[in-house]
Amino acid sequence: MTSTSLGISQPSTRVSWLRHRPLFTAFGVTTLSFRRHFDQSRRFVVFSMDGKPTVLVAEKLGEAGLKVLKEFANVDCSYNLSPEDLCTKISLCDALIVRSGTKVTREVFESSVGRLKVVGRAGVGIDNVDLAAATEHGCLVVNAPTANTVAAAEHGIALLTAMARNIAQADASVKAGKWLRSKYVGVSLVGKTLAVMGFGKVGSEVARRAKGLGMHVIAHDPYAPADRARAIGVELVSFNEAIASADFISLHMPLIAATSKMLNDETFAKMKKGVRIINVARGGVIDEDALVKAIDAGIVAQAALDVFTEEPPAKDSKLVQNENVIATPHLGASTMEAQEGVAIEIAEAVVGALKGELAATAVNAPMVPAEVLTELKPFVALAEKLGRLAVQLVAGGSGVKTVKVTYASTRAPDDLDTRLLRAMITKGLIEPISNVFVNVVNADFTVKQRGIRIAEERVMLDGSPESPLELIQIQIANVQSKFASAISDSGEIKVEGRVKDGIPHLTKVGSFEVDVSLEGSIILCSQVDQPGMIGKVGSILGEENVNVSFMTVGRIAPRKQAVMAIGVDEEPSKKSLKRVGEIPAIQEFVYLNL
Ligand SMILES: NC(=O)c1ccc[n+]([C@@H]2O[C@H](COP(=O)([O-])OP(=O)(O)OC[C@H]3O[C@@H](n4cnc5c(N)ncnc54)[C@H](O)[C@@H]3O)[C@@H](O)[C@H]2O)c1
Ligand SMILES: O=C(O)[C@H](O)COP(=O)(O)O
């Protein structure tokens, strides 16, 4: 089953993968590019590759970003695709880059038939990407979270000041030949209270600028640290306090279930009469019908909106047409500078992800800093191989339900992030027994879906914390084993491994200490310890030119029960394996493919 071990999707019956050149990576994202053709029976047939991945850029992206992409990939810039066309194209793409105008739905992931490995959101908000579907399909989602912050904050301030002084309405009236000086008397900002809802990147930049305009700034954000707010002279308050005391309310939270329609009939009723609302976050955080009612009732004096529940909003939208509302077409991130920055940020993130680097801006996977990843690399390989080994020891028919993983380390528990290791153990456990492709993105989802519980335990060891880990132990409870000696005294299948000179080693099977490098495949034999066993097995394998990389015997005591572990570079024939099993002293044996 080559393709599973390479971390790519299983070929479906409709697709034949004739050649592939995988870039195996720490977390299973591979960069592959195929040309697929229909054969006469209308089956997909992959018959050539150019070695480069294909990136579909579905919305306008800055030139600098395209340049970064083109150095590494084939780039297909196809803007304004219909949902159907996007679904058709996606099966030929390894990565997709979008802004807020493209809905990356479950159908998109399903249509990609496992090929789409990365979705890059050239901006912050990922509410247009079905994250659950991405995760289920093992597709990494990355965004560009920082490059448009200042642009969005500046747009928020532009809307705030333009609204206070009726700039948009006054401009339109002058252009219409009118001169209405008394109609467009505005309000001053100095001394007024601005409530910043969502004190993240954009919110805090808006707050900083509003302070410069002489406003009194308060903020509401359940997750923002108070000291960060204090540092720029902003007080963090409750939601109710913020909306009740503000003259201006500026929205800067993400659109998630908890923030959807956060401003609604009930919350508008709690606001100060004459409040002014600015929204450069997402349209969905306001109940737009409720806003129209609040404006008509005189609760909200004015609103300045860059974002809408539906974009573009309907031409006859009562909200947009209201004379107390000014609107821009989602321009928050649209400065030359921000678009150049976002394009580079997302292109680098997508290329990095296609190369298999763990992305610093991953939205649905653990973010592991490069230096931590370098340190963990051999343990990542060990984790997957131990998982593969353990599951192959389970006798057919006994379902794996509970897996206990123990990490022994000299480092403090909060100094070891095990999410990547857990994902690789899951990959090892699931892939040999299914046609599911597992990577760091969908590992937790996959085990949950299969009803497998992975319990993790840390054991703190004494010593210098030079290495992140001493050993990993995997135990599978409540199952039979096809190799009885792998069952420990406490009744579980148990395997344990360590990294030696950068190479993963199997160091324990059941209660037997062994030492075999996990580079090729392994034969485990159990026997009563006696002279000549290594020679007998070695000569059978040697006869068919199977190279033995390691041989080790773990025994309870001399001439007592023992387990012999033999590492082999090539797969022995069934005939040779049968001959090994027929050696009289051998009680049981198993061949484990890594
Ligand atoms: N109009 C545009 O073009 C444009 C440009 C950039 C960002 N945005 C949008 O602006 C918003 C903020 O972007 P950002 O980069 O500052 O994101 P961010 O993640 O840095 O900040 C969001 C903040 O919202 C807070 N938050 C979460 N739930 C909340 C809740 N229930 N109540 C109050 N606060 C809550 C978070 O703790 C976080 O501090 C996002 O919706 C983003 O999509 C729009
Ligand atoms: O979330 C964002 O980054 C902004 O809303 C910008 O969206 P855009 O890339 O579609 O301009």
TrEMBL record:
It comes from Sesamum alatum. Keywords: Acetylation, Amino-acid biosynthesis, Chloroplast, NAD, Oxidoreductase, Phosphoprotein, Plastid, Serine biosynthesis, Transit peptide. This is D-3-phosphoglycerate dehydrogenase. It is found in: Plastid, Chloroplast. It is an enzyme of class 1 (oxidoreductase). InterPro entries: ACT-like_dom_sf, ACT_dom, Ado_hCys_hydrolase_NAD-bd, ASB_dom_sf, D-isomer_2_OHA_DH_cat_dom, D-isomer_DH_CS, D-isomer_DH_CS1, D-isomer_DH_NAD-bd. Coiled coil: none annotated. Residues 522-594 form the ACT domain. Its EC number is 1.1.1.95. Its main location: plastid. It catalyses: (2R)-3-phosphoglycerate + NAD(+) = 3-phosphooxypyruvate + NADH + H(+).
